[in-house]
Amino acid sequence: MKEKLHINIIFAENDNKPILEDRGWVDFFKKFLYMMLNQTMNREITINMISDEQEGLKTEEGLFIPILSPDFILSGSCLDRVENLFQQSENTIHDIVFPVFKSPLSFVDIPEKLRPVRSYIFYLSNENQGAQELYEFFTKEAEKGYWMKMVDLCFDIYESILKMNQTEKNTRSHGRKTVYLAETGQDLSGARNIIKRELIRHGYDVYPKSLLPQSFSGLKKSIQADLEKCQFSVHMIGASYGAIPKDSESSVMDIQNSLAADYSESSASDFSRLIWISPSLKYASEKQKSFIHNIKRDDKSSRGAEVLQTSLEDFKNTLWEELMEKGLNKKLRNLYLDASQERANIYLIYDEIDREAASILVDEIQAQNVTLLTLENKGDLMELRNKHIDCLKQMDAAIVFQEKVNNQWVYMKLLDLLKAPGFGRSKPILGKLFKSEKAKGIENEYLSRYEVEVDVSGDSKNVINFIKTIELAYENSQVKVARES
Q1: Contacts of the segment 80-86: beta carbons below 8 A, 24+ positions apart
Q2: Residue 27 in contact with residue 87, Cβ under 8 Å?
Q3: Which of 382, 432, 438 is nearest to 409 (CA)?
Q4: 277 φ, ψ (degrees, to nearest 5)
Q5: Number of H helices, E strands in the chain
Q6: Separation of alpha carbons 421 and 406, rounded Å
Q7: pLDDT tens digits for 361-399?
Q8: What is the pLDDT of residues 65-81, one digit of tens each?
Q9: Model pLDDT, residue 271
């Protein structure tokens, strides 16, 4: 019999007023949470809805998700229930409580005991329009502003369950050092979350662990305290300048970079930095352009750092090399080397409706010096999903193919590639290609949203060139790892 998992959602009734089909925001949250957890856990899941209008309702032992909003803060019943959690389970509170922000809140309004707890922002934060609640769940904005956060939440719930089942909670740390992963603008929030999950999955301790204060003085103190615990910092700079705290003219990531540079100067031998600047800066504001110019030209802004302006995949590969070069974890380095795998694994993803057209690509790929991974359309939905996730773990590169299948299928598969590190991969992805003539004219949109190369040609030339690049990258990585091991 499957173990049962109880999840208690604590919310203010005003946050669940009907928005579509007599369902409210919290109802939809519950539905999506259940669907995603059901795909990743071999457990019977029960989700209890605990409204502030339900007096004396008993919570089940398990996990707790408070839905934070102005109405939640004004509800004495909601605040009392949160307070009771800390009285009953203070020692394990970080493993069982997952605060979700439905709406923006001032830092001083957040319950004090929830401030140090990791939290999940489910509203949109736009540099020009400010913070906005999200009610349309299937828009482009929702993909990274809502669904990627739902992935993070489900991933952390899964990790917490594993942790609670372990007899020794520190078995996965391997003495690794700590990493400060600086905040980013909205345009890179999804990429940051993916890298954060990769680091945590391999046992790295990642800071900051909780919400940052909104005042400059409190923010500065918090950043400095976290930097003192770290030996490495990562700064990802995109087109968005990001949030600006009170009493400051600089954004949070600008301040983080400045303080990390200062800390690097005082701790040069014990602290290293990596700054990545996105090559896609077409829509950067003047303030962001000035910030980037200072990093490139001002020695103080880039002090102690290696500065890169490459593709995101190249940056990820460099990040792992830097972590391993610094000796942060030699055991992780050995995970990259699999003596039984002589060739790169290429995962070709296509729908059954495109099987005939994809057969041409199958023949082309099999003629190369790589191993082809594909899925047979056999088994029930859950079995196919598990096989798909296995391929996402094993692959070195992926090709998503579309001829007749609809765009919604494509979006889900490209999102899976973005989420692949969270499925337990132990090696970097060497490349991702989307082949579709339907993408002609909107290649840059796919590149920016899904970080994938796009091939709109009607032949296989670009696919073959892509595979040749992967072959070379794989051979170089194997040689390098073998030399360093």
Answers
A1: 81/10, 81/50, 82/10, 82/111, 82/113, 82/114, 83/111, 83/113, 86/113
A2: no
A3: 438
A4: -110, 125
A5: 17, 19
A6: 25
A7: 999 999 999 999 998 766 655 567 778 888 888 899 999
A8: 999 999 999 999 999 98
A9: 86
